[in-house]
C-alpha cells in the first residue's frame, strides 16, 4: 500500500497552472526521489500536499486515505514531516528550542531530543546556541532533527543539498540512509544526482510540471538523466 500517493494531479498558484497530470507514490519503507531542474514544479508537489498550492484535478492520499490536501497544521499529526527548502530555522531560538518546535502531540516513536543528538552529535555540542548562528550544514541537520521530532512515517526533504559543501552533502546522504534503514520513508526532492543515487531506490523526473521519466535507480548512470537534471 502506498503511504503517499498523487493520482492525476493538476495544481496551480492562482491562475498559473504548475503541475499537469502528476502521478507518483511512496510506499512504506521506500526511498524515492523527485529530480528536475529549477522551476519544473518539484516544490509544488510538496505545496500541493500541504494545501499551499491549489489542487485543481486528481487526488492526494496519505496512509491509504484520500485526503485532498494535508494541511500544514495537521501534517505532523498525520505522520508527514517536511524539511523545507532554505531550512527555515527560527531566529532567536536555540538549537534545543528549535527541535522542540517540531514535536507533534500524540505522535509516539523513537525520536526525542536525545535521539536527535545521537544522530547529529554536533547539535548536542551546540544545543544552547542560536540555531541561525550555526553553519549551513549544521542548520540542515537541525532542520532534519526538528522534522524527526514529530516521529513521521514519511519525511520529505526539499533540496537539502542546496548551499552545502560536497563533504557535508556526503555526510547528509549517510544520515538519510540511516533514517531509512530505521524505518522512516523518504521522499527526496533534489537536483544533486550524487545524493539521489546514494539515498534513493526509485526516482521520478519532472519537466514543465509533468512526470517525464520514472524507474529504479539501480544501475542508472548520470548520463541517462542529464538531459532532465541539472547537477
Automatic annotation (TrEMBL):
Similarity field: Belongs to the ABC transporter superfamily.
Tree of life domain: Bacteria
Molecular function terms, GO-annotated: ATP binding; ATP hydrolysis activity; branched-chain amino acid transmembrane transporter activity
Protein name per Swiss-Prot or TrEMBL: ABC transporter ATP-binding protein
Keywords from the UniProt entry: Amino-acid transport, ATP-binding, Nucleotide-binding, Transport
Keyword Transport: yes
Organism: Zavarzinia compransoris
GO biological process: L-amino acid transport
Domain ABC transporter: 4-231
SUPFAM superfamilies: P-loop containing nucleoside triphosphate hydrolases (SSF52540)
Amino acid at each position: 500500500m502506498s503511504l503517499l500517493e498523487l493520482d492525476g494531479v493538476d495544481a496551480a498558484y492562482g491562475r498559473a497552472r504548475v503541475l499537469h497530470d502528476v502521478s507518483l507514490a511512496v510506499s512504506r519503507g521506500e526511498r524515492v526521489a523527485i529530480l528536475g531542474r529549477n522551476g519544473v514544479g518539484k516544490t509544488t508537489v510538496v505545496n500541493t500536499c500541504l494545501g499551499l498550492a491549489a489542487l485543481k484535478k486528481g487526488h492526494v492520499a496519505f496512509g491509504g486515505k484520500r485526503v485532498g490536501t494535508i494541511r500544514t497544521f495537521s501534517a505532523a499529526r498525520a505522520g508527514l514531516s517536511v524539511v523545507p527548502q532554505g531550512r527555515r530555522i527560527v531566529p532567536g531560538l536555540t538549537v534545543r528550542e528549535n527541535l522542540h518546535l517540531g514535536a507533534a502531540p500524540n505522535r509516539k516513536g523513537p525520536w526525542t531530543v536525545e535521539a536527535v543528538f545521537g544522530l547529529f552529535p554536533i547539535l548536542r555540542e551546540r544545543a544552547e546556541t542560536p540555531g541561525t548562528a550555526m553553519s549551513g550544514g549544521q542548520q540542515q541537520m537541525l532542520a532534519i532533527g526538528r522534522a524527526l521530532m514529530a516521529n513521521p512515517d514519511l519525511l520529505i526533504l526539499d533540496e537539502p543539498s542546496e548551499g552545502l559543501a560536497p563533504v557535508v552533502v556526503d555526510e547528509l546522504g549517510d544520515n538519510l540512509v540511516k533514517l531509512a534503514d530505521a524505518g522512516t520513508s523518504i521522499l527526496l526532492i533534489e537536483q544533486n544526482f550524487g545524493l539521489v543515487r546514494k539515498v534513493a531506490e526509485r526516482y521520478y523526473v519532472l519537466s514543465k510540471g509533468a512526470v517525464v521519466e520514472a524507474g529504479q535507480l539501480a544501475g542508472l548512470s548520470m548520463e541517462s538523466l542529464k538531459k532532465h537534471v541539472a547537477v
